[in-house]
């Protein structure tokens, strides 16, 4: 327990994850209102929307208008997601997007091939091109996400040594360009991680890149999300991606589809931290209201637990 | 990690918890089929139904017929739940009920008063009457459940010393009658437990009653269920109550109603154990099919995660 952080940062991905996965296109005003409410809770990093093909993802076709509609709160980073150069250019051209450079590496060849028609090594080499683009834009690459770091439906188990190698590669690639990499996020893209694996992989990656801040991007696909967060906290991890109300889950996914459950749920994880005496800077009660707002917008029961049961605040010292 | 058990026992409560909480009365044949399927998975203890007032709980009015309908598998304990003498007599008179004596103590005065019009101490004294009844019936009290051991909506936080006192009391009361108590179950009746509290309370209770097997009855009310199980495993706990598919949750519960989420989900916890290399004696794939059967019977999406995403079995060594 001695390695536990005093304070944890949650980066909110609900608005992008949640609305992107749905078949419905929800009113822009509702999505803007949710982002605005989230920014009032103490969250400092909110992924608002993605800049991807409007043909393939019509739910995100109005990202420019969404960013324009949001009343911004000072000190909050309003992020956008891009997957290719065209998307990056759109994000750059959009007022109100807080641009921060990001690299992405694949720990699974099979997944890289499926997604991009290129193996993991080829995809890794292409990151140099992103560093060029970022340099041209006058920004740096702040973080690198290592996808399928814990396992892959197309490839099976992922040797942790491969993830360690990718972490070193990302750090070195950035360092060579005079761009010290600040963060590496280990992503459990398909919900394979278990607590022992989290402990082991964090230990190995930290040893390899001790100067880089490590974070986790976890999905609750198989119900181990909160146990994985506990294992990470015990290893001193203080950076997590998460989604309000557990947004990102898809109730229409067939059995066997790993898309069935979303990211770990922000307010449930904030509740965990507060119960353990770890600060988050987040107003849990306000965040619970955001989760309920998300549920009203989506129009069906969402995965979060604390949003339905309430926190323990009203009950503490009930008879005192 | 060195204290982790090699093997864990899950006691299935889904059929009783799940069908009792619903507004609908489901066909007896469906409920019998679920119990029969569960008994084929390797589960050795299944709580089938309760013997409570048919006026107040019409869902359980046909418990006698249900027990009669079930094709029994040798080696499986088919349990019934009773809360008063009348219920116990009914259970005794019902063919096919595996009767095992059980005591129940309240860690919260306020909850005891609300449920029984008597404080926790009075309720504790009444346990002597149960020991008499069990002795008359020629059985022993095998286990004692300590309710609201981690906190109570009506009373607030529960001092762990109180739980320790109750554990000693139960052990001594049974010992005086020449009935050595085998098990004490610490119940997180209202979903207050967090992993640190689990670690602490188990340590304290074990020190007080080292010869009694400790188990946990956990609810996933606020999403910390699996993290609490991890903490318990790390303390060597190898006995858990749980519900297939997370049965017992009530989607109609209002915000703030702690009934909103059910017990920890059996197949998700079995998945956790297997991923950690802990045996359960349970066929996970067969149990997942039971969870899907439960979902078809109930007729709406249930809380379990692995039942929707599937286990990792089909993906392991995908490219090997």
What are the SSEs and their pairings?
The structure is a homodimer of 320-residue chains.
Chain A lengths: L8 E4 L1 H8 L6 H12 L5 E7 L11 H7 L7 E6 L2 H9 L7 E6 L2 H8 L3 H6 L1 H10 L4 E7 L12 H17 L6 E5 L7 H14 L4 E5 L7 H10 L4 E4 L23 H10 L8 H15 L7 H4 L11
Parallel strand pairs in A: 1-8, 2-3, 4-5, 5-6, 6-7, 7-8
Helix pairs in contact in A: 2-3, 2-12, 8-9, 9-10, 11-12
Q: How would you explain this protein's 3D organization?
A:
Two copies of one chain form a homodimer. The first copy, chain A, has 13 helices and eight strands. With 320 residues, chain A is an alpha/beta fold. Chain A has a domain at 101-215 and 227-233: Alpha-Beta Barrel (TIM Barrel). In chain A, the strands form two sheets. Chain A has a six-stranded parallel sheet with strand order 1-8-7-6-5-4. In chain A, strand 2, helix 3 (63-69) and strand 3 (77-82) form a beta-alpha-beta unit. In chain A, helix 9 packs parallel to helix 10 and helix 11 (266-275) packs antiparallel against helix 12. Chain A is globular. The two termini of chain A are 30 Å apart. The relative contact order of chain A is 0.15. At the A-B interface, helix 9, helix 10, helix 11 and helix 13 of A face helix 9, helix 10, helix 11 and helix 13 of B.
Compact description:
2 copies of one chain form a homodimer. Chain A is α/β, with parallel strands linked by helices and 320 residues long.
CATH-defined topology of the domain at 101-215 and 227-233 in chain A: TIM Barrel
The CATH class of the domain at 101-215 and 227-233 in chain A is Alpha Beta
Please give the largest β-sheet of chain A: 6 strands, parallel
Distance between the termini of chain A: 30 Å
Chain oligomer state: homodimer
Give the uncertain stretches of chain A in residue-range form.
252-259
């Amino acid at each position: 327990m001695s390695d536990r952080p005093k304070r944890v940062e949650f980066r909110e991905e609900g608005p992008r994850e949640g609305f992107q996965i749905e078949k419905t296109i929800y009113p822009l005003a509702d999505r803007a209102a949710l982002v605005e409410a989230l920014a009032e809770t103490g969250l400092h990093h909110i992924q608002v929307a993605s800049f991807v093909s409007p043909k393939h993802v019509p739910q995100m076709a109005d990202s420019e208008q969404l960013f324009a509609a949001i009343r911004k709160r000072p000190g909050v980073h309003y992020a956008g997601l891009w997957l290719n150069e065209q998307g990056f250019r759109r994000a750059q051209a959009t007022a109100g997007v807080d641009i921060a450079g990001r690299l992405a590496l694949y720990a699974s060849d099979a997944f890289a091939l499926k997604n991009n028609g290129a193996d993991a090594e080829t995809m890794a080499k292409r990151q140099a091109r992103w560093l060029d683009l970022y340099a041209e834009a006058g920004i740096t690459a702040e973080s690198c996400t290592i996808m399928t770091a814990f396992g892959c439906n197309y490839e099976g188990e992922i040797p942790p040594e491969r993830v360690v190698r990718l972490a070193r590669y990302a750090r070195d690639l950035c360092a060579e360009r005079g761009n010290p990499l600040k963060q590496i996020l280990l992503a459990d893209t398909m919900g394979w991680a278990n607590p022992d694996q989290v402990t082991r992989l964090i230990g190995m990656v930290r040893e390899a890149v001790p100067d880089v801040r490590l974070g986790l991007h976890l999905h609750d696909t198989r119900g181990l999300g909160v146990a994985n967060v506990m294992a990470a906290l015990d290893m001193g991890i203080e950076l997590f991606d998460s989604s309000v109300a557990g947004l990102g889950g898809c109730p229409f996914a067939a059995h066997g589809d790993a898309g069935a459950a979303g990211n770990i749920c922000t307010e449930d994880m904030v509740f965990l931290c507060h119960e353990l005496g770890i600060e988050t800077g987040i107003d849990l009660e306000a965040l619970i209201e955001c989760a309920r707002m998300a549920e009203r917008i989506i129009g069906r029961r969402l995965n979060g637990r604390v949003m339905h049961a309430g926190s323990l605040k009203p009950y503490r010292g009930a008879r005192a």
